[in-house]
Structure formats: C-alpha cells, structure tokens
Amino acid sequence: MKLFIDSGSLKDIQTLVPLGIIDGITTNPSLLAKEQGNYREILKKICDIVQGPVSAEVVATDFDGMMREGRDLAKIDEHIVVKVPFTRDGVKACKALSDEGTRVNVTLVFSPAQALLAAKVGATFVSPFVGRLDDIATPGMQLIHEIVEIYSHYEFATEILVASTRGPMHIVEAARMGADICTCPPAVIDSLFNHPLTDIGLKKFLADWEKAQAALAGKA
Ligand code: E4P
Q1: Is this structure's pTM higher than 0.70?
Q2: Which are the catalytic amino acids?
Q3: DSSP labels for 22-80?
Q4: What domains appear along the chain, each with residue ranges and CATH number?
Q5: Which of the residues 65, 82, 110, 203 has the least number of beta carbons within 10 Å of its own beta carbon?
C-alpha cells in the first residue's frame, strides 16, 4: 500500500520524504491556507521534493471554472494531480480532464455509490474520507471495505486513496482491506514507527553490548 502525506507543510514533507516510505502528497485548500507564501510555488517545491503524485485542489465549483483551474494547476509540474470535489460538475470535470490526459483525484467521497461514479469517469484516485464519517458515528472503514469489494468486480484503473485518517489503525485496516493508498497527517505517519518493545529491546541490546565491551576492556 502506498503512503501519502496529507499536508502542505514543506517542513513536514522535507522531514518525512528522506525516510523512504512516502509515495506522494495530498493537499486541500484548508491545508494550503495554513502555509505562508504563494500556493503555486509551494506546490512546485512539494513536487520537486517528493517526485510522486501531488494532489492540488480546485476551488471553483462550476464546470468551466474547474476546467480552467485544473488545467492551470496541471501546468505547475508533471506530478500534479488535479483534485475535484464529488459534485455533478466535479464528476463532469473529472471526465473531461481525464480525457485530456490530466490525472484527477475525486475528493469528498462519502458513499460507495459516489466511488462507483468516480471510477466510471476515469478518476485516477478516489478519496473516501474515513475520519469525517467516524466523527458522525458512521464507521468510515466500512466504506473502504465496500469500495474495495465493488472495484474488485471490474477493471477500473481508479486507485482507492483512503483519506481523512486520524490514527495508525486506519492505516493498518486500510492495508488489510487492500486499499491502494492511505494519505495521513504527518503525526499519524510518525506514530506508525512507535512500539515500546522496540525501544526496550534496543536499550537492552545496547546495554548488554556495553557491558561486554567493558568486561573485555577490564581483562586487557
Ligand atoms: C484528503 O485528501 C484530504 O486532504 C484530507 O484527508 C482531509 O482530512 P481531514 O478530514 O482530517 O480534514
């Protein structure tokens, strides 16, 4: 399963990419609004660092506006994937941009029916939001299970990009279900590294080694 960072922070991206576990980035207007500077320059820098798919979202809500913004975003770098919201105009723009050869991520997906339609119009990625479903007491991972099942019956090229993840278990469950990608806030990616037994085990290995070296030095 591929792992994307859900962030517009160059600092976080520069910290995590060198670990070798990151395959791409997702941004959205809320995330980019938190950053200082020109959003096009930020997106270009992100593309240069990650050298993988970088989702950049349109803010227009009508078809013509989405097409104009989508084409403009795609010019920033070859790694840009244009993100459109799941609306009627968004679905139409997904079809038109995909037909032009631009990769599209259909976002704000909350039902299996929406995911089916996104695949039918050639979305490169479909982004179901699991955390926001959990927030309203609806099991988000059940949606992933249903989309994986539906897509398994057909030859869609659309990849399932699990979004709005809140903790490590979303990532583990997504991988168990066979989702293609998980996008996660930097803190969630960081949490995947943690296990107390790893820390305890390493401490003991190093202490035993030090003790043996000290004993050897004493005999010399
Ligand atoms: C996905 O592409 C979105 O940017 C993101 O996952 C939304 O997450 P949130 O629900 O934590 O805002």
Answers
A1: yes
A2: 83
A3: --EEE--HHHHHTS-S-HHHHHHHHHHHH-S-EEEE----SHHHHHHHHHHHHTT-TTE
A4: 2-219 (3.20.20.70)
A5: 203
